Amino acid sequence: MSTAISDDQLILPLIYNNERTRSDEVFLHQPVGGGKVDTYTWARFMDEARRIASYLKAQNFPPKSQIALISKNCAQFMITDVAIWMAGHVSVALYPTLNAETVAYILKHSESKLLFVGKLDTWDEMKEGVPADMPLVSFPLAPKNDYPTWNDLLRDNEPLSGNPTRPADEMALIIYTSGSTGQPKGVMHSFASISAASHLFIDAIKVTKNDRMLSYLPMAHAMERWIVDTTGLMVGFEIFFAESLSTFLQDIQRARPTLFISVPRLWQKFQAGILKKMPQKKLSMLLKIPVVNTVIRKKILTALGLQHARLAGSGSAPIAGEVLAWYRDLGLELVEGYGMSENFSCSHISIPGKTRVGYVGQPYPGVECRLSPDGEILVKSPGTMLGYFKMPEASKECMTDDDFLRTGDRGEIDEQGRLKITGRTKELFKTSKGKYIAPAPIENMLNNSSRVELSCVSGSGRPLAYAVVMLAEDLYANLSSAAKAEIEKDLGALLGEVNSKVESFEQLQFIAIAKEPWTIEDDMLTPTQKIKRAKIEKRYEPMLDAWYAGKADVVWEA
Question: What is the Cα–Cα distance from 449 to 430, expressed in whole angstroms?
């Protein structure tokens, strides 16, 4: 769809304006190991971007070629994005946790001409998917290799002169979906769609250059690319990169973010960590005591590094209402948002003071939303994609005749226009009794238990549904007989609690417990930590007859 945005409000002109007016201001903070952090002013950032752009121009790739990046988040990722655009090309980011097969598929499908390689944990396995003749460039924190290095390119290339711009409707980047339902699709976004979506976020949240954010969710994901990468480049607020999973709490305390966006799984981990040190019963009691409650709230938020957060958000997947309420009791109004790769995550947001638990908020100004006759959420957004790369039929199928995106999600809209997600249209399954079940709401109830990290509800063709759950990760460290008995007791109670809240045809016959955590590496989770439903169902299918015949409320994977 066309997007009404003036040329001077596109991302590249705004980047040049930051370069011109804020050259000495610090923009990025990059950990380099050993507790050291490298800082990038706007002058340094743009000097390196211009040198990398010169290098790309010198390769004489055809105009608008795809240039790929595979790296954990880092300063060079953002610099390369800008360099690719200045050189007249298209940025294609790959998740840093992909297997070799998916790496090979994306590089071939995207027709990428060159690959930048950055900080990665499993590069030895991933590189098997890289074509033998593909040129590679190494970021400073990349695994040991013999590719041309970032510093080589900075040394050997003069900064690109001038301020090259790109037309609004020209493709800026391709985001490959996380592949939760099959092969990843390449979502094409224009300079107009990424710029317009970012402006909507900036205006809604009143983002300024005085804000701070921590970048740690994969930049290959639309939400991080939107809120941190493109919005950060346009506004120029300070961005801090996380060093590693083991240093995450130190990283967030170093950043002291004013805006902090995450996924439900991390918010649940934060909650579990607090409750491990202070049981809920004691916390609830302390929060009822005047003065003491203020001290406790400040202490907890400071321990999380969120004492300065003026906005805390959750997205990418549904979050339990009880988790939202728990954080609000701490004085942190955790809000939900909703969006997809296909509209650059720009669809709905919960505005503080207008939130409703269980709802993802209202459409951004300029975004329209309605429900189809069968309850599918349809959205028209300035952030809507150009289409799927090399998939014209799929591109056509996902749009209505009047340019609304078919999201594939089912929902409800209340009297104030707030949207509630009730499940995926393609995730609905039918029991042998002919009843359709939406698994997501039931999974949300299960995931709200401190014992459960993730869950998958299924049961197509069975009299009743069932759930397989992945326990909270720390529980797997001690699965003694006594610990198992305690877990079984708690999950049996959880089963009864869930079944008391759903319709009779939605009740679960049993809960099965995964014998080990699901991971990205074993293909049970997407790079954004969402379950791969079909993979999980296939894994447990051989066990179902025995589990159903056993009649137990709680069973363990053998």
Answer: 26
Domain boundaries, the chain: 7-241, 259-307+309-425, 428-556
Digit-coded pLDDT (tens) for 59-68: 999 999 999 9
CA–CA gap between residue 244 and residue 227 (Å, rounded): 20
428-556: CATH number? 3.30.300.30
The hierarchical CATH code for the domain 7-241 is 3.40.50.980
Fold classification of 259-307+309-425 (topology level):
Rossmann fold (3.40.50)
Burial classification of residue 523, based on how many CB atoms lie within 10 Å of its CB (0-12 exposed, 13-18 middle, 19 or more buried): middle
Query: How many Cβ atoms are within 10 Å of 495's Cβ, its own excluded?
Result: 19
Kindly give the pairing relationship between strand 405-413 and strand 419-424. antiparallel
The pLDDT tens digits of the residues spanning 262-308 come to 888 788 888 888 888 888 999 999 989 999 999 999 999 998 889 99
Q: Is the dihedral of CA 123, 124, 130, 131 positive or negative?
A: positive
Tokens for 520, please give them.
């990205």
Q: Using DSSP bridges, classify how beta strands 259-262 and 36-41 pair: parallel, antiparallel or unpaired.
A: unpaired
**Fold agreement between 7-241 and 259-307+309-425:** yes
